[in-house]
Fold:
Amino acid sequence: MDLKCKNVIDLRREFHQIPEPGWLEFQTTVKIIDYLKDSGFDLKYGKKIHGSQRMGLPTAEESQKYKDSLNLTADYDLSEILQGYTGVVATFDTKREGPTIALRFDIDALFIEESGEADHLPQKEGFRSKNKSAMHACGHDGHISIGLNFAKWIMENKDRLKGKYTLIFQPAEEGVRGAKSMVEAGVVDGVDYLLAGHIGLGSGQGVLSVGSQGFFATTKMDIYFEGVPAHAAANPEHGRNALLAAASCALNLYTLTQFSAGMSRLNVGILRAGSSRNIIANHAMMQIETRGENQEVNEMLMERVQKVIEGTALSFDVDYRVELAGGAPSYTIKDPDFIQAVSTALSERGFTTKSNNKLGGSEDVTYMMNEVENNGGKAIHFMFGTQIKGQPHHYKYDFGEEVLDFATRALAETALYLSDL
Amino acid sequence: MDLKCKNVIDLRREFHQIPEPGWLEFQTTVKIIDYLKDSGFDLKYGKKIHGSQRMGLPTAEESQKYKDSLNLTADYDLSEILQGYTGVVATFDTKREGPTIALRFDIDALFIEESGEADHLPQKEGFRSKNKSAMHACGHDGHISIGLNFAKWIMENKDRLKGKYTLIFQPAEEGVRGAKSMVEAGVVDGVDYLLAGHIGLGSGQGVLSVGSQGFFATTKMDIYFEGVPAHAAANPEHGRNALLAAASCALNLYTLTQFSAGMSRLNVGILRAGSSRNIIANHAMMQIETRGENQEVNEMLMERVQKVIEGTALSFDVDYRVELAGGAPSYTIKDPDFIQAVSTALSERGFTTKSNNKLGGSEDVTYMMNEVENNGGKAIHFMFGTQIKGQPHHYKYDFGEEVLDFATRALAETALYLSDL
Amino acid sequence: MDLKCKNVIDLRREFHQIPEPGWLEFQTTVKIIDYLKDSGFDLKYGKKIHGSQRMGLPTAEESQKYKDSLNLTADYDLSEILQGYTGVVATFDTKREGPTIALRFDIDALFIEESGEADHLPQKEGFRSKNKSAMHACGHDGHISIGLNFAKWIMENKDRLKGKYTLIFQPAEEGVRGAKSMVEAGVVDGVDYLLAGHIGLGSGQGVLSVGSQGFFATTKMDIYFEGVPAHAAANPEHGRNALLAAASCALNLYTLTQFSAGMSRLNVGILRAGSSRNIIANHAMMQIETRGENQEVNEMLMERVQKVIEGTALSFDVDYRVELAGGAPSYTIKDPDFIQAVSTALSERGFTTKSNNKLGGSEDVTYMMNEVENNGGKAIHFMFGTQIKGQPHHYKYDFGEEVLDFATRALAETALYLSDL
Amino acid sequence: MDLKCKNVIDLRREFHQIPEPGWLEFQTTVKIIDYLKDSGFDLKYGKKIHGSQRMGLPTAEESQKYKDSLNLTADYDLSEILQGYTGVVATFDTKREGPTIALRFDIDALFIEESGEADHLPQKEGFRSKNKSAMHACGHDGHISIGLNFAKWIMENKDRLKGKYTLIFQPAEEGVRGAKSMVEAGVVDGVDYLLAGHIGLGSGQGVLSVGSQGFFATTKMDIYFEGVPAHAAANPEHGRNALLAAASCALNLYTLTQFSAGMSRLNVGILRAGSSRNIIANHAMMQIETRGENQEVNEMLMERVQKVIEGTALSFDVDYRVELAGGAPSYTIKDPDFIQAVSTALSERGFTTKSNNKLGGSEDVTYMMNEVENNGGKAIHFMFGTQIKGQPHHYKYDFGEEVLDFATRALAETALYLSDL
Structure:
């Protein structure tokens, strides 16, 4: 596969057809490797780019079933990738003095069935998802193609570039699961500048937002209550009601969200309990998340959450188990002058820029941004403005494909500016 | 198919292999018809034996899907049966003066996957369920075969029998869904004596319990809350949380069960809510049931339940919908002397009898028993004692097959006794 | 004070004017002693008639304040009585062979302000309560006067009576608090027959109910949650919300009442929490009670209650404390033949009798009844039928005073019958 | 009473001894009138300074009882004041052209028993509260004396002052109850500049904070649930449980506080329910408050609160009643340049100033500030820095009395500056 001949829109449409949810990005990873392997990049993948904390993994059965459906082969070792060590880190050293600039692109899709309606562009133009149970409904297909397009730009400009470039293709951003283990594995060690960004998110078409704010710290947890079943009429007292425990737990959790240090969020997104109308429910499961405007708030909230879970289990005489399913720290711009300078530079290079954009959600690139800045580097998160159709995570989500080139150019100009600092 | 040559144990094993849950008893109904159609019985099925209140129907999709998997044909019209008007009513008129005696046999199975373990008799002897998603785990396969065996006994003794016999093969007893619409359709009109019974249920092997008590009145309901989804971090206030409504509703429902007029029961057996961790849940569903030692208690409880559902919807600003999924009245023995007389008669005919057996659950045959008694007839519910393996509704449930002949004889002797009163 | 000249109605009206709630029966105790001290009875009071488990004591302040308001003096030591060791046990030994017959009379009043309306007999006839905060609104003034009238009967018939008589004037029956410590102190040791009873309670005027049933086992508890206060706007996270803990606890407690072994009851009768609208509440108090148709049910319920309290405290990160405030066992008639024989004997002596009367509540005389029967004796609880005005515990409660003589005679005839067995 | 000879500290100590909670400021109002009536001010009081919306009034009984305890007389009509139309508005017209400057001073105390400990200055110096049930524990005694001291300054400088001065002595600030009805009555109509402030609140000694921020919008409500009582054992089903309704309501209310538009607060500060352990509680009362970082958030929250109250009443089949007990809007500085200019001017006049002070609570002077600004005027809220002992609302609260003169001078200098604009 030759990246050189590939248009960024074609790339996007290619990846759009093979959406793969977090830790299952098997084809996606292989395709990225294949595009980059003969391009002068040093490639790392599998266990080399992950630590021990891959959060929110699919079950072994799900993973195996999907793997079996693919029948992937390659002339390099796929085994680690197929165990869920997905993603790629591609490094290019210009051999000229200069900073190490890392760029992060997230690559996973969502468990959503894509629209087949005629007015949905991917359907109309024939590049709708081929995987019935998944869809790129948050623009990560765009992010991958911007990453590859940026790689192409490096190749084309390698004679005039300085320093080192690291392209991080990160799995499992949805549910904020993938960044932590990559940071653990050291993928941003030694990075001077980290660039990241997201298509859309409120910036108007053609507007480049420089320096996003308002990343909530977040924790994702799965809670299991295990009781004792009993016939609800004949001997209800033999039961230990896991459904009732979950119901009480859910209610009590929502009472915990008032903090003076900043806003917090708590959501019990999913509750599943019981198996039969006339049996005291012995199983219950909840998928919850907490958030805080800052780390402190999320941590205080999590402490209270733990107590409520434990206390509820005691109240209803059931067992409980909590599994960490994801998480990301908050992020605050530490050097507003730097952000301002980058913004000004990009303005001067013809971009319509905007600052102080609030994300109002969470993104695990904050693990990388904080890590880089804690080590003395700097980080910027962009929003690449474009027209969005459907909300993110909607089955008719789509974006204006002009943003792909726009984003590549913005990143390239930023890189050039930073190289000259 | 010739009933005459059929052993009751073979019959049971035949039906055991084709378990069909309530309102899906397509093969079962056809097989019963086929066994009886040339035996002198007058057969009714389809809409003729059902009123408008078939409760707790499967969804149209489930029903269609199952129907498609079968490819059933017959030389009579199957269309109503395949629309879920399942069950058969078979009448035999001896043309000799005597009472009308009805016998009720329930025919449905459960959504349970049957054990394939070597020590499970149906597996060992090769008559395990052929339907992976269903199992006769409450002995109704036995009940069908007793019914057919009883039909055979009528055929064999038709020259000496008196009065009229009505064999009611009732669908959808599980979840107490099927009896009501049959009563509405008049299947027990004009009945002088109604005989019903259940294999096992606490009576020891070879013991015949005459006159069961302690049927709880019960109502089964499915509750749906419909809210508004929203991103849990970005704009939680746009959401209307159906999960939280369900949780609060469940808790509040369980507070309602204290009544001086008798014991009551309430169970929320299943709660399913939400679709994604980071979305305010907009759907929630609960399967609940109420019970009362007597009708009055169940009705008072249901009134309170309705208020809690409505009030909860208002509290959380969500819509709600309640679907009646089943129900049965309580039953009290009205003429203990009659029961005693039958018991004594059966004793004299060699049966080990027992009385005052508490069911401690619900059974919708009570609709038929109350109807018959309200019209001046009499009803008896038996328990046919045998050794049970596994609890009812357990994936390794099994019973001693000697009970099939025992139950047939008990019913036959009872019928003979009643004919001579 | 000379009992001989006292009419039972005058006695009742005298005690009606000095109602004293449980453990505060200071004047009442002294008056009973004064009436009996020169009558040949052996009197015991103070610590001699109480063990260590006096439940549900008033606070030291309440007790002291009431004591100070009275200025009681006597020529015997009042100190223990004034510490709340109230009640009297009066024994008379006929010195003739015969059984030991104990009779129990409860002596406490309620914290209710008595009606001053013209149609309320005590007001009209000038014997309304002189204590504004208390009232004999459950007939215990009648019980005391029946006890003293019975004592008078003993005196008048001492030359023909056999065996020993023990009159137990028990404090603190309301809230089932007083009997336990008297049993501990041995007041019913060696008793062959225990007679107890209550005025009214559903028996019609002139009807004597022999052998009451349906005493619920019960436990009374005060629950305290102790949190941390905080300004609700400025720093809510510093608070630990005792009010929320109590609210969640109350709700969860009410979910616990379904048992196959019999009916149960749970009530949170009082909840008091918080001190200011804008402060996270750091104190909460609940007065609760549990009941069971039998001991087993109440015990299972109490175990679950304990878990909910403990679990709730953990959930909301507050401290808790549980104080036992009262309790009584259930009581079942163990020897129906004995009850029947007594009933027949009383019938023959001219009483209109009735049996199988359900109390539908709790009474701590059950401690004494069970103790006597466990030691081989027998117990009977009567209901002395009369017309009641107002419900028990109502501020206009009153009863027909003819019942006082009726009850005395019934107890006397029973005693005579038992002495001759 | 001659204001001229009165030291501001003496004034403060005089008012400190007669603390009167909101709408009961009878002596306080009379004393303010008496101090000002011969000083050239035009005085208004009673119904002239209040509209119809006096929120959170004490009960008629409380009010009458307090009134009776005072025996107040005067040579002017006290009747409206003694009906709770407390407070005074004093206007002085210099007759020289210039702006109308209003100053607001709150005058109410709290239901707190003041410390009698030796290290508490008011005790040591002999000016502790003479009203056992109330205390000036939030510095409003200081505010009154600053107001009177300011009046004295006007008198002393009347020949050089310009424009008009309005001194507003507002009742019932605690619980944010008093400002609304004064605004309704037009007390700030025509005001060009409104000055308000508070002693202490985090500003260090000698520091003048100019332009406070972070006033939460707030609503205070009393919620009543009215059910049906019943004996908890004998006939629980006759009861309608107001305690359970309140418990469920409290829990559900706390789940409502997540909003993207800003922080919110909700507190159920007081819950009182039930009257007896063994009776289903038929009364329940809750004192709650909501807050929002801005008006919008508080309003969205209040809408949800209303639904939960109504829905809960429906769920538990009880009646409900909601009484508005207080409220205040949020306040945002609209003209930061103006605040900055004032701050600079005060700096130049020798004050150590500070800006951007967050209140983190609510204050109903915001009704007046918003009203003035909506009519084209300007408003400033100061914090007069001093050392505080004990927290506000603590029984040992005290402040450094040097602040009284400091605050008077700050307000005077501000007035002079504004007059010259």
